[in-house]
Specification:
This protein is mainly alpha-helical and 728 residues long. It has a domain of 126 residues: Toll/interleukin-1 receptor homology (TIR) domain (Rossmann fold), CATH 3.40.50. The protein is 73% helix and 3% strand. A five-stranded parallel sheet has the order 2-1-3-4-5, with helices on both faces. The longest helix is centred in the N-terminal third of the chain and has 27 residues. It is flat and about 90 Å long. It starts with 7 loop residues before the first strand and ends with a helix.
Length: 728
Amino acid sequence: MTSSPTARIFFSYARRDREAADRVFAALEAAELTVYRDTEQILPAEDWRGRLEGLIARSDGVLFVMSPNSVRSPVCAWEVEVASRLNKRIVPVVIADIGDALVPEGLERLNYIFATPAHDFDAAIAKAAEATTTDIDWVRTHTTLGERAEEWADAGCPRRSRILRGDELSEAEAWIAAQPANAPPPTSKHRAWIAVSRAAATRRQRSWLIGALAVAALSAGLGVWAELNRRIASEQRDRAELILDRGSQTANDLVFDLARRFGDREGVPQDLVRDMLERSRELVDRLAVAGEDRPDLLRSRAAALAEMSQTLARLGENEAALNAAGDALEAFEALIAADPGEPQWRMDRLVALDRLGDIRLALGLETEAEEAFDAALASARELAGQRPDDAALRGNLAVALEKTGQMALNAGDAAKARASFMEALALRRAVSGDPHKRDSRGVAVLLERLGDVALAENDLRGALAFYGRSLVAAEALAETAPQDTLLARDLSVIHQKLGDLLVTEDDLETAVVHFEADAAIARRLRQDDPARLEWARDLVISDDRLGVVRWSLGDAPGAVEALARAHDLAREVAADARSDRADKDRAARMAQKLSLAEAAAGDSQAALRTARTGADDLRGRVGMEGELAAALNNVAWFSLLSNDPAGALAAAEEALALDPEAEAFKLNRAHALMFAGDADDARAIYLDSANSDEWRDMVDADFETFRANRLETPLMTAVETALDAGGK
């Protein structure tokens, strides 16, 4: 395969930004990049959407010129959607602050390059050129093969024509295996085309190949799965085995033999888990292609995708999980349509609906999640009604009731939620004597859910009773399987809820015991699997709760210690490529909370360092200008308490530049001017809002704090006198 040192870039921009975009375009061409731009390449009478899509397909990447105009442009959003669907590398270059505008899906988690008037334009272009040309040989092959895969798909995915053969096929397979860490992944059409090509090349030896692939994938990957299982829960072990044992009885035996051999080994990083999932996906796709219309192999692929979807979701790969769950559901529904009398297909569809609902909910698609859960409940009732003595089907019905009950509780319908949870609890209790702990765990979880319902109805005694019963059950289960992360997480959550409830009851001494137990569990889960973002988020919340209740108990050193841990980890999570807006918000709040605690504990210098760190972390984060302004105001305040009026003035003025009308920012600027010796300008600000009671209260509170910290000037008394006189 050939490669080119010059990247071909599609240039996406809003027409209203033509002048600024022209400058970026010219700079990219000067950097010897081939830039496709629709104004030059599209004739007036052409099908512009088809032409643009063709240009994007032929490009090695897309440079998105980000501005308030482009993020609101339907055409630009469509271009980003096409690029995302084709798995093109997207490089956002910000030419103007977008404020609170909604960023198109596909851009939120990317690293932005800033080329605004406040930034170094040449440096920004250099970064953009570097970003678009990184791993260009591999990316160019992605483009070339992608175009051919699209042509193959447009031709109806033929099995004998338009496919790869000989060295081309071997090179394509080697290309997939050599994917660089930060390169855009192959599309599903890439993979399907290569898989069909391989199946055609070895059709006569299909049976042997399937067995060989299964053994090769299992041998290479089961160690990863088994090692993973030690850390991330026995439920994960069940899923891993489900994914890998579907191919044949020989593969099934091998799964259990190797699982026993690796059962006591420690876990491995998540990147290896993702690699294993990718290999498993390739295997099941090949099984399905090779099996043609065999229902057993088609079901094998669909069942594996259903289980993989939940594992991907637990790894934080929600978009990939959503695709896998959707593919699984589509496959099961096709099997049902082909053979409506087969009950297994309906049970499989039920599992796929449950997975799909969970993933949609995690992505914030609440209406779509509710649709999936309602469909799952209807299916579960039908199946359980047909075989009322089947414990597994009753368990499936209990799960479906739990999901719809939780959706009802989230929507404020406590009565419906209680009815669903009580019905599910009765089903769980009927089979909780079974040696499998899943039903016993279900009882513990449902008791917790009923506590949530009681709390929603302000029945604090009822909530405390249900939570207490759930805690007893969860502790008993966790003792039977100390390494089971699912049970440990359940125990952590119920400790949190009990702690929160006890805080509202002013029983802080008992609440702190629960928060400490919760934090200890969260810390162990985090230490066991540091790459799992979910555990890190949990630990941030746990240490935050612990710090707050310790402060309420008068344990200032203990509070600062816990809040500092939460702050450090929140920053780490916010910097992770998988983080979302909530993670960044949490990091900003933790910086503010920790700095306030440090200052209240008498360490203004530590508070100032924390506040500066919080502000520095927020700089450059698009859409978080309000949070940055608040953080800068904190820097100004703690600079004042640290007797640094110059630093306070700089921070206050930077905050005011972001929000010129904020009264608190104006007040800190006045304080900074006063302590810097500029009494006239400070006095003018102080007296500008003299008729406002709220302003007077703010001034009084701040002056009281300054005096408590031995910071005072004659102007303070003069301002107080003038404010008492109405600002005269």
